[in-house]
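tl;dr need the bound structure. longer version: we got a ligand (5CA) that a collaborator sent over and nobodys looked at where it sits. i said id run it. heres the input, straight from their email, havent touched it
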Amino acid sequence: MDDDAGTLPLKEDFSAWYNDILWRAEIMDVRYPVKGLYVWFPYGFAIRKYVYQRLRDLLDRDHQETLFPLLIPEQEFMKEAEHIKGFEDEVYWVTHGGTTPLDVKLALRPTSETAIYPMYALWIRSHADLPLRYYQIVNTFRYETKQTRPLIRLREITSFQEAHTVHATWDEANEQVEEALRIYREFYEGLCIPTLISKRPDWDKFPGADFTIAVDAIMPNGKTLQIGTVHHLGDHFSRTFNITYEDKTGSQKLAQQTCYGISERSIAALISIHGDDKGLILPPAVATIQAVIVPITIGKRHEDVMAAALQLATTLATAGFRVKLDNRDLRPGAKYYWWEIRGVPLRIELGPRDLDAGKAMAIKRTGGKDSISLSSAAEDMIRVMGDITCTMRNRAEEHTRSRLRTVDSRDLLNTTLDAGQVAVVHWCREKECGDMIEATTNASILGTDLRSTYIQETTGTCIICGRTGKATLVGRAY
Ligand code: 5CA
Ligand code: ZN
């Protein structure tokens, strides 16, 4: 790939930086000739693999993975009224098999409630079948009309993790909502991505849900990105799809349900929040390559150095690290640049003098140098990887904190948002006041019932009407 074509834009110019880094770091190719569909490069896809492996590991503790069809018959799709209203403008329809019009139109799933729940109705018989917790990781299709962006707003979401759970009571489903939030929080902690969790206002909940709790991240330009949602579905769908169970007394009850999802927006946030002017910075936990070893073999002793570098690579690989020995015939400078852009957390340089001293120089992608002793390389790696993770987490938290501001006047609300910050205001939760906030700021009410270490859950006077209100996040969202 020709990556000398100019330099990476500064991260300050976030949108240019983002588009450029996807190309230069070989994450996505945006040249696929269908709007809103993009192609994963192998390097990007490997990042996806590690990120989603973490998600799978977390879910597999008490969920089971499954796989449902992509096509949904029209009758099923059209059963739940609110759900249809929410999605009908976004659905792609398959209408023909070859040249023959289909008797029953088929929807490409925009999400899989209406594919999964008719089967749940068949599977669930008694209280002994509950709780049921299944998930799948699939592609979904949404004919998005807002501006499409790679990894952020797709028409084919390639990496849609959706969990669908069924419970005996509303309270048990509610407990599952909390559990899902714990899982998502842990997932994002593993990626060193600070999250804001809040309850979306009623007008912004998932079509067919009792309520929606969303996970947002603050991007470098101060815009928020919804990187996950958890929905309490109550019995909206179980009524429609007749998902009932026999309780202990022998009577038939409607089941209570939840669903929750994460997409490759998680990777958009990962790239955006951690990267810098030189390129990506990947947390060691999900870095495709955790350390690259660059042998410095100017002049003689070429053989010695190469042998030691290979030995070090083998030692680290055996200890379970993802390492790469870069023995390409390139100047060291060119190699540094190459791996910096791709976000490899650690570069290990090994030259004749290092070899004599029994150690290698370790340059952290987060800044600063360290050293790796050749005789205790694996232990040193654990320490340095830990350092890097810690630095990344602190920086991301600092970024998030600095982007949050509590405001108590409408003037200040606008200046805060214009300055690329997310505001915390007090809002009475009346729709009128909510509309007023959104209309006058060109921003969205993200939510109330904040669960965050960054913000206090307080009460105060509504920023519009002066009645009692609760702390509410307001931001410009992607
Ligand atoms: N069935 C529920 C739970 S899986 C559902 O579909 N929820 S959702 O509509 O909120 O989507 C889940 C998550 O997918 C969102 O929180 C968001 O992070 C992500 N997402 C939604 N639409 C897109 C899109 N067009 N491109 C990329 N990610 C998206
Ligand atoms: Zn009010």
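gonna send this back to them w/ a short note. The CA atoms of residues 181 and 472 lie 19 Å apart.
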